[in-house]
Structures are given as C-alpha cells and as structure tokens.
Amino acid sequence: MEKGNSRATAISETATSLLYMKAVARLPWMREAARALWGGWLGEEREPSLSEPFLRGVAHFEARYRTVSELVGKTRCHSILEFGAGLSFRGLDPAMPSHLPYLDTDLPAVIRQKRVLLAGLEAEHGPFDHNQYRLAPLDVLEADALAKLAEHSAGGPICLVNEGLLIYLDADAKARLRDAIASLLHRHGGEWVTGDVYVRSDAAPPPESFGEGFRRRFRIRENSFESFEAAERWFATRGLQAVERASQSSRALQADKLLQRHGWKPASPLPQSRQTWRLALTE
C-alpha cells in the first residue's frame, strides 16, 4: 500500500502533526519525542497562542489515545500488536502491562522515522524497562501481512490495537481489514481494541474548525459509519461483538485545562460521534 500510494504517504505525514498535538496533551513520551524530532520543545511558550479550535482538536485525540489505552489494559491477552501506531509510543506508556510483548507497527517510512526517535529517547533517558517492546514495518492491507507478523508473537490470545485507521479507508479496504482481523482472532484467540468507530454527525463542523480541510481531503464523513448500530452490524457480519465501549477517558484531559486557562468552555464531554470499542468473537 505504501509504494506509489499518495494517500498512504499523506496519512503517514499526519503522524508528525499528531505528535505535536499529543505533545501538547502531555501524553507519555510525546514531548520527549517532539524534542528529539524538532531539536527542542516550545509547547509551554506557545500554549498562550493556541487557538480554541486547535485545543478542541487536541481534546479529541487525547481522549482517543486514553480510551484506547484504558481498554487495552483490560484485555486478557498474551501479547499486543498495534497497527497504524504513528509516532506514538503506547507500548512504553507506564499504564500499559510491561510484562507483555508489544509489537508496534506502521508503514515502513513511519517505522524508519520512529526508530530514529526511539534511539534518541534511549540515548537521553537510558534503556526502557520494557525489554519486550519492538518496532516492525507493516502494511495491514497487504494480503496476509498481519497474519504473518502475528505468527511471530507470543503464543496464546493476542490483543490487536489501532487508534485511527478505519476512518481513512473506503468500504472495501475496511472490510478486508476487518476480515483479516477476524480470521486472525479465530486462529489465535484474543481481542481487538479500536478507537476508530466514527459515525456521521448531523451537526457538520463549521468550515473554520480545526482539521476541516483534512476531513474533506480524506472523505472522513463518507468513511464514517451511519450510526453506532450500523457499526455493530458491520462488525457482527464476521462474528465480532463489542464487549465494552468508551467515548470518554476516566482521566481529566490536559486539553480541558488549557481551554479553561484561556477562559473557554472545556471540551468534555466530547460529542458522541466517536467511540473506542473492545471487540471479541462471539463464536
């Protein structure tokens, strides 16, 4: 998917902008990674000039990250494989179970950049305690690529994780990915945690809202589910059922603190147009 695919390249480029937003949200290792990437971190100095739409965007991605991590922490698996991870380092998050093997994957170009960042983090902060965390290139839309990589994971049930990917895929690509995951869970057992259950909101964001150009470019509305009930039926066609759903993090959002510091209303509770689901096979 990566070679010759301008959409894949453009999506990979968004990992950098998301890194900045997650650094503003003070998510684990994001400020350190931003410092390694840009040679410094000026977040605190820039915070007073951040716009309200931008901070509401930060709230969205902060809540998405945290709900995914919280549901991953509830799975009973022998290993974790995250795909489309971008420049996040969830596997090194202190909240994650450090005794489990954690395979962090994305397109090859992202993983190359991430290896450099990881080396920089270790040079500055020393080796991480999580000695079972590793990086690997993966294009999940390549036939059998996910299954082949999962074969190298620890035996027993596997937790598959993604934060944001389905929203970029058309109906055919989404179905192929869902089917590949269902097939893998049939073989290994385990669960799928996805923060990617977006539905079409009747209230369209105003043109000046943060990320509206990105939404139009990647047909985000068109790629969203009609409703949560429609998403339920879509997963159920391959025997997948949501055993837990979350839209809000159990933790207070850093973005809310920044919004209130400016005198703006907090973002929480966030609009009910996205949820994180923990899915398991019903068969």
Give the topology.
Layout: H1 6-24, H2 30-38, H3 43-46, H4 52-72, E1 79-82, E2 102-106, H5 108-125, E3 133-137, H6 145-150, E4 158-162, H7 171-188, E5 190-198, H8 212-217, H9 220-223, H10 228-236, E6 240-246, H11 254-261, E7 274-281
Parallel strand pairs: 1-2, 1-4, 2-3, 4-5
Antiparallel strand pairs: 5-7, 6-7
Compact overview of the structure:
The chain is of the alpha/beta class and 283 residues long. The chain has one domain: Vaccinia Virus protein VP39 (Rossmann fold), CATH 3.40.50.150. The protein is built from eleven helices and seven strands.
Account of the protein in words:
The protein has 283 residues and is α/β, with parallel strands linked by helices. The chain has a single domain (6-87, 97-281), classed as Vaccinia Virus protein VP39 (Rossmann fold), CATH 3.40.50.150. It has eleven helices and seven strands. It has helices at 6-24, 30-38, 43-46, 52-72, 108-125, 145-150, 171-188, 212-217, 220-223, 228-236, 254-261, and strands spanning 79-82, 102-106, 133-137, 158-162, 190-198, 240-246, 274-281. It has a seven-stranded mixed β-sheet, with helices on both faces. Strand 4 (158-162), helix 7 and strand 5 form a beta-alpha-beta unit. Helix 1 crosses helix 2, helix 1 packs across helix 4 (52-72) and helix 2 crosses helix 5 (108-125). The chain is globular, with a radius of gyration of 18 Å. The two termini are 31 Å apart. The model is unreliable at 203-209 (pLDDT under 50).
